[in-house]
Write the structure tokens for this entry.
Amino acid sequence: MLYISYDFSNDKTRTKFAKFLNKFGIKKQYSVYMIKNSERLLENILIEIKKTYKNKFEKSDSVIIIPISKADERKIIKYGYSSNDEKDVLFFS
């Protein structure tokens, strides 16, 4: 699992990056995504960041990628909405 946090001063770049991450993961907070990953997926994300976004970084921009091991996944403590977001939901029509 990965958590990716970002902050871009340019609105257009920020929006484009959010749409890019949305293809791979779940938005957890305004600029934080959780991605259930494989090494290959992480490699593809890193390539895209370097190819498309790195040259657009301004001094105050940042992207932080936090890999979390399977063992550490079980140690994550969630409250509020986050505590329910991975539970199955049953809809009746």
